[in-house]
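Propose amino acids for all 299 sites.
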């Protein structure tokens, strides 16, 4: 595996079909699943690792976001990644950028309400990665469903010749969706945080049993989160997957997203409802069979 710091070096190392996995690092099995999907389908696997200041608001966790390039290099190499592109700030933003990419309406709901400017900062850096790295495919997690919708629409609107591929959510054994931010949680908060996925599983059970009311599904998830004293629920919203608009009824492809504060972490999770033979089936993601590597030394 080659570790490079410039867009030009990373671009020059491509051959055949290149799959890009954009990340902010501190890898867990969710990231590794994207690398593995890219490895299975592409000739060159290129992973970008950049904690993008543009997508953090004032008072958010930019300064304490977990970073460990040595650890990430080992994990990426073991996953068969060809190129790890880990630029310094000056490579991505040599000058104060004056251009921003904003994807109207898709970015204003859900996390966009709590994090003004977040999706604009994210879409701007992803557009730079798409332009500068010229991969044919990009692999993103459905964990960040709104991000996936924004990136898909941005790539289509700006005519980037890239296919954006959404991959399933990877969960811990007890259901908690993997996130680099889970390292902020104390042991008690870590246990309480399962209320998000528990709420989603209850709601998707109700949907599988025939419930189609958006309000009922949202209430089921909110109630489960609200019963947990260490969890401060922000929302549960049934959301149309492409336009990211609230859906009153489960009658088309969509996702139920929850957001909550647990201690100092803001966590999000979702269940997608995907079409299968004229039916909408909940996709609950995949569960690890052992504790995540987030909590152990990597060597
Ligand atoms: P991040 O480093 O958190 O910005 O995430 C990089 C990519 O990994 C994004 O496309 C995320 O959606 C994806 N990702 C993060 N957590 C998970 C997860 N638990 N399962 C699947 N993909 C994930």
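Proposal:
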């Amino acid at each position: 595996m080659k570790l490079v710091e410039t867009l030009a070096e990373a671009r020059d190392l491509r051959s055949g079909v290149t799959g890009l996995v954009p990340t902010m690092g501190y890898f867990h099995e969710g990231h590794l699943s994207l690398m593995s999907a890219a490895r299975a389908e592409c000739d060159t696997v290129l992973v970008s690792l950049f904690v993008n200041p543009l997508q953090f608001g004032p008072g958010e966790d930019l300064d304490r976001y977990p970073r460990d390039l040595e650890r990430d290099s080992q994990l990426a190499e073991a996953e068969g990644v060809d190129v790890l592109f880990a630029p310094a700030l000056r490579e991505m933003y040599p000058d104060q950028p004056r251009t921003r990419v904003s994807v109207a309406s898709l970015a204003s709901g859900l996390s966009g309400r709590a994090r003004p400017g977040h999706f604009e900062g994210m879409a701007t850096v992803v557009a730079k990665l798409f332009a500068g790295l010229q991969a044919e495919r990009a692999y993103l997690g459905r964990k960040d469903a709104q991000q996936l919708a924004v990136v898909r629409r941005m790539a289509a609107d700006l005519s980037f010749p890239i296919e954006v591929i959404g991959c399933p959510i990877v969960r811990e054994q007890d259901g908690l969706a993997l996130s680099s931010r889970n390292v902020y949680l104390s042991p008690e908060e870590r246990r309480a945080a399962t209320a998000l996925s528990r709420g989603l599983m209850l709601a998707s059970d109700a949907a599988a049993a025939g419930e189609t009311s958006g309000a009922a599904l949202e209430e089921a998830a909110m109630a489960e989160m609200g019963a947990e004293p260490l969890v401060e629920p922000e929302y549960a919203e049934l959301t149309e997957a492409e336009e990211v608009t609230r859906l009153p009824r489960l009658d088309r492809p969509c996702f139920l997203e929850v957001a909550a504060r647990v201690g100092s972490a803001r966590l999000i999770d979702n269940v997608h409802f995907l079409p299968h033979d004229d039916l909408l089936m909940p996709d609950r993601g995949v569960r690890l069979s052992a504790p995540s590597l987030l909590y152990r030394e990597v060597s």
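The chain has ten helices and twelve strands. The pocket of adenosine monophosphate is lined by residues 23-24, 30-31, 33-34, 140-141, 143-144, 167, 169-170, 177-180 (CB under 6 Å).
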